[in-house]
Amino acid sequence: MAVTYQGKDYRLVMFDLDDTLAPSKSPMADDMVALMRRMLDQSLGCIISGGRFEQFAAQVLARLGTFDSIGNLHLMPTCGTQYVRWSGSEWETVYAEYLTDDEKSRTLAVLETGAKELGLWETETWGPILEDRGSQITFSALGQAAPVEAKAAWDPDGVKKESLRAHAAARLTDLEVRSGGSTSVDVTKKGIDKAYGARKLMDILDLGTGDILFFGDRLDEGGNDRPVLDLGIESIAVDGWQDTYAKLSAIVDG
């Protein structure tokens, strides 16, 4: 099983989630659902993102449903600190690398204090600003359920988010602090990013970097998809799910 891109066969197609397969925190569109089903008939697939499994379930799994090739889909929530696969009857967690209670409490304190000192702690939000995802702590400036338009307007050049990331990284030197989505900062155990997740999946599925094709919207220097490209995996930059749909359909249906 494989798809072909620029004359080369790839056994697995890997995706970022928000703004790659779907709008941020939103369900996949009908066209993307149908395309993903066709792709999974031809190759393995993986979604790797900073969100927790429940977000994957709402945005992707509830839309895809159960079909013959669903077992070809592999899920890596919180940037690969967790790995979830289809058992034949349910989605099962194969591993999860949780933060300790001490790591969590220190991270929550640093992010809140830092955001307030930097003037980034908003009082009008859509849900909690800080979220414990077990293997990841996430700061979302406008809350977990903020609309796409509000998030896009809050920090269009990424300066606010980077200031908090740098502040936290200097104080949490034993942990990994990185930019997440458009308004978020993620903290995990040291050395964990999307390249870490990709390497874990390659070990599990016996794949090499040359077997994987990756789609992401943040492949720029400092972007949270960039580590996959730097790992040596062929990567396709996209700007929103419609762009992904156009480029993926040319591969799957071409």
Keywords:
7-stranded mixed β-sheet; alpha/beta; 8 helices; 254 residues; 4-stranded antiparallel β-sheet; 13 strands; 22% strand; globular; 36% helix
Give your account of this protein's structure.
The chain has 254 residues and is α/β, with parallel strands linked by helices. The protein is built from 8 helices and 13 strands. It has a 7-stranded mixed β-sheet, sandwiched between helices. A 4-stranded antiparallel β-sheet has the order 8-9-11-10, covered by helices on one side. Strand 1 and strand 2 form a beta hairpin. The longest helix is centred in the middle third of the chain and has 17 residues, at 101-117.
Sheet with most strands: 7 strands, mixed
Oligomer status: single chain
Give the number of helices. 8
What's the alpha carbon Rg, rounded to whole Å? 18 Å
Give the number of DSSP strands: 13
Strand order across the largest sheet: 7-6-5-4-3-12-13
Order of helices and strands: EEEHEHEEEHEEHHEEHEHEH
Low-confidence stretches: none
The CA-CA distance between the termini, in Å, is 16 Å
Judging from the principal axes of the Cα atoms, what is the shape?
A: globular
Instruction: Estimate percent helicity.
Output: 25-40%
Helix and strand content put the structural class at alpha/beta
The average pLDDT is 94
- Strand portion, in percent? 15-25%
Task: Summarize it.
The chain has 254 residues and is of the alpha/beta class. 36% of the residues lie in helices and 22% in strands.
